[in-house]
Amino acid sequence: MITCRSQVTEMILSCKVRKGLKWRQVAEAIGMSKEWTTAGCLGQMAFDKTQAETLGKLFELSDEAIAWLQIVPYKGSLPTAVPTDPLIYRWYELVNVYGSTIKELIHEEFGDGIMSAIDFSMDIQREADPKGDRVKVVMSGKFLPYKSY
Amino acid sequence: MITCRSQVTEMILSCKVRKGLKWRQVAEAIGMSKEWTTAGCLGQMAFDKTQAETLGKLFELSDEAIAWLQIVPYKGSLPTAVPTDPLIYRWYELVNVYGSTIKELIHEEFGDGIMSAIDFSMDIQREADPKGDRVKVVMSGKFLPYKSY
Amino acid sequence: MITCRSQVTEMILSCKVRKGLKWRQVAEAIGMSKEWTTAGCLGQMAFDKTQAETLGKLFELSDEAIAWLQIVPYKGSLPTAVPTDPLIYRWYELVNVYGSTIKELIHEEFGDGIMSAIDFSMDIQREADPKGDRVKVVMSGKFLPYKSY
Amino acid sequence: MITCRSQVTEMILSCKVRKGLKWRQVAEAIGMSKEWTTAGCLGQMAFDKTQAETLGKLFELSDEAIAWLQIVPYKGSLPTAVPTDPLIYRWYELVNVYGSTIKELIHEEFGDGIMSAIDFSMDIQREADPKGDRVKVVMSGKFLPYKSY
Amino acid sequence: MITCRSQVTEMILSCKVRKGLKWRQVAEAIGMSKEWTTAGCLGQMAFDKTQAETLGKLFELSDEAIAWLQIVPYKGSLPTAVPTDPLIYRWYELVNVYGSTIKELIHEEFGDGIMSAIDFSMDIQREADPKGDRVKVVMSGKFLPYKSY
Amino acid sequence: MITCRSQVTEMILSCKVRKGLKWRQVAEAIGMSKEWTTAGCLGQMAFDKTQAETLGKLFELSDEAIAWLQIVPYKGSLPTAVPTDPLIYRWYELVNVYGSTIKELIHEEFGDGIMSAIDFSMDIQREADPKGDRVKVVMSGKFLPYKSY
Amino acid sequence: MITCRSQVTEMILSCKVRKGLKWRQVAEAIGMSKEWTTAGCLGQMAFDKTQAETLGKLFELSDEAIAWLQIVPYKGSLPTAVPTDPLIYRWYELVNVYGSTIKELIHEEFGDGIMSAIDFSMDIQREADPKGDRVKVVMSGKFLPYKSY
Amino acid sequence: MITCRSQVTEMILSCKVRKGLKWRQVAEAIGMSKEWTTAGCLGQMAFDKTQAETLGKLFELSDEAIAWLQIVPYKGSLPTAVPTDPLIYRWYELVNVYGSTIKELIHEEFGDGIMSAIDFSMDIQREADPKGDRVKVVMSGKFLPYKSY
Amino acid sequence: MITCRSQVTEMILSCKVRKGLKWRQVAEAIGMSKEWTTAGCLGQMAFDKTQAETLGKLFELSDEAIAWLQIVPYKGSLPTAVPTDPLIYRWYELVNVYGSTIKELIHEEFGDGIMSAIDFSMDIQREADPKGDRVKVVMSGKFLPYKSY
Amino acid sequence: MITCRSQVTEMILSCKVRKGLKWRQVAEAIGMSKEWTTAGCLGQMAFDKTQAETLGKLFELSDEAIAWLQIVPYKGSLPTAVPTDPLIYRWYELVNVYGSTIKELIHEEFGDGIMSAIDFSMDIQREADPKGDRVKVVMSGKFLPYKSY
């Protein structure tokens, strides 16, 4: 009996290691970006029926598990409020160190409002650099102005 | 008597509002990007002597305050571990929802290691869009491989 | 020297008590709803120039304070993550008890996405009832679908 | 052996996914609102005998599970004090940003007291809008004046 | 300039110590119980005009402070979520040790609902006992049944 | 293998639901108050041999479980420092709102010391009231003066 | 204007450093143990009139401060739940490492109940030892049996 | 498969209840104090081979469990930072109320440094008293002076 | 089915105790330092294929477990933000007591930047000392200057 | 009036910036290491009379401030349990990632006990490296075996 989406995430991770799959391959299989696909497989997005069935074959999932992939999950992928993993912590640190800067500059350009984390996309690429390759991340989120009424 | 950098940050913010300055203008004055300049003025970066003196004139700071601008500050710009401000929270949420995804994809591309938050730069731009303009953020951080020994 | 918006909020609250003003009167003075006006005066919204000047006269504020009213504030009006005040706690409790229900029903109706807290309005009214009058709150937030990419 | 209500919640969720049920259908089956019914199925309300038996058939529950549905549960549906799920977080954010406003306006209208979260009902509807449909939530809670003695 | 109720609480406490007043005397002066009066003076209840003026004379308060006594305060009298003071902690401990018991017994007697902390009164008395006097506390709160709808 | 008292609490709760027992009946069976008996069954008190054996028969417990009922448990019946359940939260709220009041009044009557939560008893009754029945709780705790030495 | 006991504690500490007083001398002056006297001066105990007046002379306190010394303070001398100071942390660690042991042994000897922290005394002495002197602490607290009723 | 020491602690506690053993008997069996022995059995100390084998017989442990008794455990015996159990909380309270006092008096006697919690012993005894027996705890920890360099 | 790396860590620890292995032996088997090897076995580093296979033989792991050893783990080896284990706490304490000192001295020598915890190595040795042997730890981390842009 | 050591720390930091002093110079002035001297100036160590007077001249302190430098301070130099400053966080991260490794290796070499953070010294040096200079930190702490008794 499957009682929450995180059980399916565990099945996917377990199968991915056993079969040595890459996230890029998974993304290609369902025809979506590697960022959104990975987030979905890690329990942060809901898949449509076709995507779920393709993933079901790839990860050898039961029909019940495939049904769960189409349910909107309870999101949030970190076990603690402040992440302990060094790679993820650096991102938390960027929010901490640059958070007030991002706020100031978005308000200066757009006025009061936010950058959406829902109408949002992200692209992660390797940036070749003679002094050591870099991770280049492009984020694009719709500006949502605060409504006054 | 100035006893910590945050007092100088308050002086800068107070003067900026009184004089109606823009961060872009401040950045131009010292010849650096608006992102790094704003972070520095908000107490997250240290300035060199020339930069500090230029800022001192712009924000009408005392010599003591100008000296403090050249001291490396205790960093972290948020009053709580989970930020309450909606704009900044969306960034925390991105780390929470996409954190494990970012980790998986960087490891898939680069192996074990992190994206540096120190050898790092950020660029925030308006992205015109007929369905509503977007905030485009490009981040670039050096990949640092975990040393095995 | 004013160094953050919360100082202006204190000035407003202090003057409001001294002069015995009502939030409805304040809202009428700037021609906006009582909900948005109160939130703004409590340091959660930014006012435009005309609104700020009207509030400045009403609350006997200095030009510097009026300038701060036009700056987007660092939002979040509660001193603790779980509010201690009984009236506000009941709202936290509603989120706690009904949060998963709201999630299920919005997803059932709209699919994956959220109800915006930015493109949002609220109306609070007295609802007469022979068994004891009730507080009626109508909230309206744009549905934002999660972008897949 | 069932030892707490959350085990029954898991059975319900598991069966709901397997059978592809909608909360509206569940609500109709027991003749109550979709909001109260969903909250009850998610372990936040107690059902009477008839309701529990109807749910038992719908979700293929054992007699023991049906007995548990009639027990008042330990309430609170969120795994953390500050919810990580974006949809639910927006509600927490509303309490954070508008909490002090709601407090001021209810006190201005009613005096000292609270809006009940017990003698309370909620209605969630789609609100058609050419700029994008909205979620409309109407909440009604009895005003309870603080007793002075 | 008074900017929040807690400043008035401090004035009251300071004057009470200077003049050596007893809470019983304060309560008699405004004709209310010692429990409600003390809670009000400690910033947990709002007073009416007559009460506030009487307290103003007793505690030598300014007109501005008297006005603040009539404003509903932000409630919650403890500096930490788990109180450190031993006397108050014992009450927290009672909630911790007996909380589930109180829940079970109220539900057994009344069904689903709560004991109101708003329509509530409390009486604290000395109970003579040859083995050592006891503190007797009688609490009375209206039962509020959960509304089903 | 039973390794802690909470396992026995779960057995008791499970059997109580299956057999439809009332706490009053349980209390009568061992000849103690319903308050102390319930607290004990919920893992907050230790029973003597006779009581434990009677409970063993009532709840169909093994000899090992009966032995555990006689062991002093690790006390504290709430899963979080601030309880989420609305009924129990109201009690936490009372401590928060009235905590400083209780402290002041006990000190005014008795001097420095505490009301014992160990040499303590509690009685919960229905109080008939035409405006809605009330929960009446009488608590009695020995006053313990702080020793000076 | 003095508004809480901690202000008096600061006056005492400030004067103690200026005058180079020892806690032993302070204790002798009021004829109590050094442990209780120090705790009282640090804001954890209430003094009687004679003691307060003697302390007032010793620490050059105003009459208002002397009055505050006779008020029962809000107790708890540590700024964080887990103390950061290494000396005090070792005591926290002892509770952490030996807490369950102390519980087991007191219950084995006395049955269910606690060691009082109110009817309690403590004596701290130097214990000469050729391998390095030791701190010897003798604590004595009345055993309080849990009341069954 | 045993994967951590706490599993062995559970086996010991389970067997101790089944066989009705006393900690004093366990301590005698291995010829150590009851305080150290109990702490070890509760997973806070490591045993040598002979001790572990004696305990293995007493508690009917497997060879694997006996091997784990000789491994240094991850220490800390409390499930929360602030303990909820009343007996253990009193000790936490002593640290909170008397912590600053202990610090002052040890520094006054010894200078800067700490009382060791490692080179440490404890003795818990019943102290007969006509007004009610007392728990007497003697602690002895080596003073460790802070090294200056 | 293995679903996360920590399951493999448990297998390794369990086998290590059963077979009485030393970390030095493990390190020699894979030809790496004892520090890095231990961290890897405890789930903090990723192994290459050869290392993983050698460890698989040593610890009698399945192929699935060996595959997991080559996956970058979610790092962070402590169950709580402030560690309770005395040995590990001392290190936390060093960060707490000396953290600001380390920051000042690194900035004084190198300017703004950090000592890398990724391009990092550590060596732990026994340092013989007639007054008691010492633990000598040598840490070496690349200095990373903050990028200005 | 100086009421705690942190006020003196602020005076020192303020003067250090005004006069452009280096910690190395300060250390030379009192003839101690730069690590211990800096820690002391930042409020983590107590100075003797001669050291305090030398520092008093260097930092232009009053006699009262000089007296406070000789008082053992309440230690702990970080404003939050998990440090936000990136340089200091890396050290917290090392404890988090390598904490269990350090524990294992010290126990393997020394048996049960800890590395002292009191009988401890630290040396921070620049380590020249063609691939980028490194920070080399040597720590030496006495091993303290757990006493069994």
TrEMBL record, chains A, B, C, D, E, F, G, H, I, J:
It catalyses: cyanate + hydrogencarbonate + 3 H(+) = NH4(+) + 2 CO2. The keyword Ribosomal protein does not apply. It holds the Pfam family CYNS_N. It is an enzyme of class 4 (lyase). Keywords: Lyase. GO terms for molecular function: cyanate hydratase activity; DNA binding. Its EC number is 4.2.1.104. InterPro entries: Cyanase, Cyanate_lyase_C, Cyanate_lyase_C_sf, CYNS_N, Lambda_DNA-bd_dom_sf. Residues 77-149 form the Cyanate lyase C-terminal domain. It comes from the Bacteria. Catalyzes the reaction of cyanate with bicarbonate to produce ammonia and carbon dioxide. Belongs to the cyanase family. NCBIfam families: cynS, PRK02866.1. This is Cyanate hydratase. It comes from Stutzerimonas marianensis.
